[in-house]
Amino acid sequence: MSAEEQQQWFDFALDIAKRAGLVIKDGFEKTKTIEMKDNPRDLVTDTDKAVEALVIGEISKTFPDHNSLRFIGEESTAAGAKCELTDSPTWIIDPVDGTMNFVHSFPYTCISLAVWCEQQPCVAVVHNPILDLTYTARKDHGAFLNGKKLSVSLKDELWCRPDPAKMAVATANAMKVIKKCHGPRCMGSAALNMCHVAQGAAEVYYEIGIHAWDTAAASLIVREAGGVVMDMTGALTFFFASTILCYFGSKFIQVLRGPYDLMNRRVLCAANLKLAQQMVELLEVYDEDRD
Question: Which CATH number fits domain 3-149: 2.60.40.1240, 3.90.1210.10, 3.90.220.20, 3.30.540.10?
């Protein structure tokens, strides 16, 4: 591929990714039609199919003279198309990467579009239209996020939890939750994770090791949106230890144990009490040093 071709294909890839992003964004805000492929975690929507058809159609129309042009697309491959990477220029398309997120209206989803030549990547665009994040790269020209050059972390050591007992509990909890949900999500911000529950993008969030400032504001946001915030032992927020029945929404409910303690560095929030109580039954708890 010449430098001129690489630039031409990059410009086109960026343009079609942005156009496809409009389709993703439109579908994101609507009721989805969902099909299951090989298993309950492998989903496809009408938006996946529409985006892939749009991208392949526009590539074929824009480059009609490229007889050797090949495609590898997630949905066309799932439908039986041959998945083969050769030396010929190949467009590799994931129309909606993060379909599970897309289905649940969780905004970490994107179109992934690449051109490979001679079995090497030459052009890449990853576009999240929901958050307006566009990652791009051309071979030997660097990588960018919304036009700003990227650089990987300088850290070269992995960090591990030093307490084996705490690690055992954390691992046990993760395995229990994984068996009960489509797929757990944790994006690195306790406040935002809780706000995703408030907005309906996630149903449940829990964490041990956070601090009062992580949850103080978001706990109110979740509650004001109609959700539940409690200690992982099952205690609802803002109620007192002596309470046996607490008023929640339009009815009284039974509290399993004592009150939610903002300072004890753990939290469980959920879209509703039923989900929360299911999580309480699943999860193990350990104590961190208090705030």
Answer: 3.30.540.10
> Are 3-149 and 164-282 equal in CATH topology?
no
Check whether 35 is labelled as a binding-site residue: no
The owner of tokens 């509703």 is 272
Q: How far is it, in rounded angstroms, from Cα 212 to Cα 291?
A: 7
- Asked if 36 contacts 43 with a C-beta cutoff of 8 angstroms, the reply is yes
6 CB neighbour count, 10 Å cutoff: 18
Arithmetic mean of pLDDT, 73-88: 69
The reply, when asked if residue 231 is annotated as ligand binding, is no
Q: What is the pLDDT of residues 64-75, one digit of tens each?
A: 765 566 888 766
**60: closest CA among 16, 96, 14?**
16
What is 164-282's CATH number? 3.40.190.80
The bridge status of strand 43-45 relative to strand 34-36 is: antiparallel
Q: Within a 10 A sphere around the Cβ of 222, how many other Cβ atoms? A: 25
Ligand-binding site membership of 140 (annotated): no
38 annotated to a ligand binding site: no
pTM of the complete model = 0.72
Is pLDDT at 223 greater than 70 in this prediction? yes
